[in-house]
Amino acid sequence: xxxxxxxxxDLTCDLLVVGSGAGGLSTxxxxxxxxxxVIVIEKAAVFGGTTAFSGGVLWIPGSHHDKQADSxxxxxxxxxxxxxxxxxxxxxxxxxxxxxxxxxxFERESAVRFVPTLYPDYHPDAPGGAQVGRxxxxxxxxxxxxxxxxxxxxxxxxxxxxVGMMFNSSNADLKHFFRATKSLVSAAYVTRRLAxxxxxxxxxxxxxxxxxxxxxxxxxxxxxxxxxxPIHTEAEATQLLEREGRVMGARVRxxxxxxxxxxxxxxxxxxxxxxxxxxxITQRYPHLARGGEHLSPVPxxxxxxxxxxAERVGGRVDMRFDATGAAAWMPVSxxxxxxxxxxxxxHLLDRYKPGVIGVLQNGRRFTNESNSYHDVGAALIDACxxxxxxxxxxxxxxxxxxxxGLGYAKPAPMPLGKLIRQGYLFKGRTLAELARVTxxxxxxxxxxxxxxxxxxxxxxxxxxxxxxxxxxxxxxxPEHRPNPCVAPVAQGPFYAVKVLMGDLGTFDGLRTSVVGExxxxxxxxxxxxxxxxxxxxxxxxxxxxxxGITLGPAMTFGWLTARHxxxxxxxxxxxxxxxxxxx
Length: 583
Known about the structure:
583 residues; alpha+beta; 8-stranded mixed β-sheet; 6-stranded antiparallel β-sheet
């Protein structure tokens, strides 16, 4: 059944969930499994939210997939170190308590499956940091299992697919594509993947072998549909309904007219934070406040609806994090897609590769390019404090771009000419010529490359220590010796891509209790109103400690919030399988 055009008459349920990302759908599934009648509404025409665009990774210390799980004390120490002044003991302890139980529960009770990863924490050498194992990844999924609902699954981010085909969030999958012209094994692997993908395009008009966040969104949605939970798309909550001081539903705008949904147990906000709320981000993002640009690859529908709905009934948005901790920063570039369209490319991999450096307009490096996207973004914001334009240029030589690509530009044998003509990729026979066409200071760029190459010849980065941490090396090139992150920028012609600031979502959120009850400014609960996902203030205190620190808490607290609403035991040990099936 397609729920994109709800009936104009009123609906009634136990729990209304506003938003269809991982936070909202995990809440809905858990509540339904505990016997509640649940309705999910989604403003967009597709379901999956930001989750469908994401890497599908969850940071869950101590899960059963974490084969090298260290002590609870180490996990706590790392969280204290990473959150600093914003450490919230009660919330952190709840996350560490319930995260592993949440993973086991979803794998037992739903279509959601995870696989372990080898991701180090983003700051593995910090107190309590882990060199490997705390992050898990949504297992790939055949989205054709959604049947007719496949048409409403949000497609993956266009700029990170290849003719619509998704890659696994692992080095192993991408390695074959990088080596397709150099290895018969890789060439055979790529041929099989492409053949299967084109068959899917003919049959379904989109790729169905989905991975990463698209797989997580599809698995969560499949679980909802299996449980009879309707997901109404093109359904925008415009006002919360109150009765005797308690939130009891919402007015909803649909293509068929206004709908009122009455919810006996209340409403859960899971609207994805505020990355496209122009007024709020201009106030909060330092680079926007000084006149710079910001390009967010998250869904355009994430305009802060949850915040506005909550504020109208007394909820308080918590804007206490430092300015550089307002969001999960992601360096991005603007991609011409043809037909007057542009896309946003998140620079997730190229910065780690040997032979790529990042410079400001003055031609100087400003940070370790192989640090996490959030750390590089925060460093860029700080480095451009006195500049209107908050931007850097990723620079490499012919050898590097042929082997790894650069941004949206693919490695050899894919042609580069069109991207150069479109003004996305810049090329110069010499560094001086590259500087001229990009506007980079030529003397600064030549001096930077000369100084960098002196150490790079021996695999060293004396300025920023690139390649000295396990995380730096994880997404680099393990076959490059002696440092998988460092190689000279030496063989012309030279190339550059302009990189701006973007985000993967916001860290500011509604002030809540541990179990997700929305709070007023005085700390009192707004009865019947709850927040999960990016509508709830981040447990990470404006920092980014590891891969999956958004989705991990989103699903953990979604699970915990639903159990609270349903009146289920909140202790992680009270998870007997027979207690969780709908009859």
